[in-house]
């Protein structure tokens, strides 16, 4: 049933995906959205996968590959870490990614970013990382990162495709359109570097007030909405070193 519905959805709401070749000509920054234990590591918390999840595991692998490639080239990296105070809820979600617990830390394969000179880590206590980057004085850590690094393109990966990734992408696009993120031109979402959670309808019906969240369907919808708002969607990312003159 889900596969039939998914195919119907893809037919009616197609997402044409391109390829991205990074050669250093366009200053590109990598944005990792919430690749933390609380969303990615089996059994790590209320919103973590209950069992091994191929889509999430693949997302983590692709995120790690890109982070390592950007690090080797000394290109800028920005990582959002979902982190919440235990006394401040985030409805409609149950408690998750509480500050000071392993849930709010990067997955083991990315913890080296904490000591990476080209990486900026930002803990956020809300769905949208753009809003979560606002300081008490009104400044914005993410905006400053884009401007200070003269970034013209963002490559976005992470979880969840249709929640935190989508909200951040939409805000970044709106900020770009209002010239808040100058010189930013493009926001690019790497589909294989994104994933979302899975809550089938038959399971959701056993949980009070829960909404079904079929993984493949919602992943596709997240990508479609991001593209509809102006993001570029790619299914392949490769690197090419410019030839010396």
UniProtKB/TrEMBL annotation:
Q: Where is the signal peptide?
A: none
CDD domains listed in its UniProt record: cysteine_hydrolases
- Record's Pfam families? Isochorismatase
Domain Isochorismatase-like positions: 29-197
Picking any one GO molecular function of the record gives:
nicotinamidase activity
Q: Specify the superkingdom.
A: Eukaryota
TM region(s), chain numbering? none
**BP GO terms, sorted:** pyridine nucleotide salvage
Q: Which family does it belong to?
A: Belongs to the isochorismatase family.
Task: Please give the name of this protein.
Answer: Isochorismatase domain-containing protein
Which organism was this protein described from? Answer: Cephalotus follicularis
